[in-house]
What we know:
Number of strands: 23
Structural class: alpha/beta
Amino acid sequence: MHVHLIGVCGTGMGALACLLREAGHRVTGSDTAFHPPVAPALALAGVETKPGWDPANLEPAPDLVVVGNVCRKDNPEARSAIERGLRYASFPAVLEALFLKDRPSFVVAGTHGKTTTASLLAYLLFRVGRDPGMLIGGLPGNFDASARLGGARAPFVVEGDEYDSAFFEKTPKFWRYRPWAVAITSVEHDHVDIYPTAEAYRAAFAELVRRIPDDGLLVGWAGDPTVRELAAGARCRVRLYAVDGDDCGGESPVWLAALGPTTGGTTAFDVFGAGTFCGRGVLPGAGRHNVRNALAALALASEGVGAPVGHLLDVLGGFKGVRRRQELIGVADGVRVYDDFAHHPTAVAETLRGLRALHPHGKLIAAFEPRSATASRATHQAQYAGAFRAADHVLVAPVGRPEIRADERLDVHALADAIVAAGGRAEAPASVDALVARIAELADPGDTVVLMSNGTFGGAHAAALEALAARPPRPPSR
């Protein structure tokens, strides 16, 4: 079958394209830009790519057109496919129809941590011999691609995105994933362009829980009150998890982790199941949020497929993380430069706390680009002010979506002022170039810089490394 994907360079669409290629289909795809890491993965998989939105990209006529949610209803290529009567569908509909019908679907959902948790779950299942399929909205370090077929009847791990499916299918992607086992890591109002209220956002997750069959499994973080409410209404088996010290609202989680030391770039933690000590795990990276992610994956693998906890803990240390999640992209003039996808206030705070634990010495400089539909708006203006406490200096880039009305847009100067008023150091450079220049001025050898954005940050990552490497050597940070 010849399948054509419109918007093929999105993380999810790119993963689907690779999955279709592995299944033996001819795959073509179009997009307005082809950036790493997705573009190289498409080339490696043998996906034929075409630039721009053009009806000519549909020649010869494909058997199936997958329309990504990046496409608006006036997209000329999508409109041509529909008007010509070509068979078309959304990304989640194709995933459901071709890959999820005859195997147990493990859906990892939540506002935060779902990419890392899904990647870790797939890795754990692979290492204990379950040969899982997977589709992840990122590039896991333990696999060559973000998607794999796996065994015909093996579990299929899918990152459960709550964003809508397509302009003709305005429902959450994860409703189409036939969930048998589900993890919900957190529920905090996000995607305000799709969910105008917190209640509407919660309702999407409530319907996901409702779709889990009676013999299925729900794993949820007990530290989130909304997750606890959703779990209380589930008709399937429920397993709550938490890290010692989380406020669980009086619930007693079945799965509990007690944090150990962070040394040598890893975090140790002890795992207890139903009050019984299961063993100690060692996880690359740092941060309570990463331990929570690991605990969710361990619970799903143990409760969902019966994998021995001891075996899971033995292989845990081999996890290589996910691109753009606390990813060290280089060191220049003694300054560590990290890339991270964090854009919600909670994710920003957790990322910075984790990096501070990983690198307790030297300054921590946080550069933040508000680019997502939610981050670009004033929805979380007040919450952002407290999210950067772990950083020694904060640089807030211009809003990545200038088309948003000024009265709805995040005020980056007010954010910088609020951080300063709370005792921190912050500024809002006028451009990405000016922000990069400030990094080169502020950072000393031994310092850590993290660039946080859900987009490309205008090339700031490479530019920062170049600027640091080009400057005259300077003494270490004190």
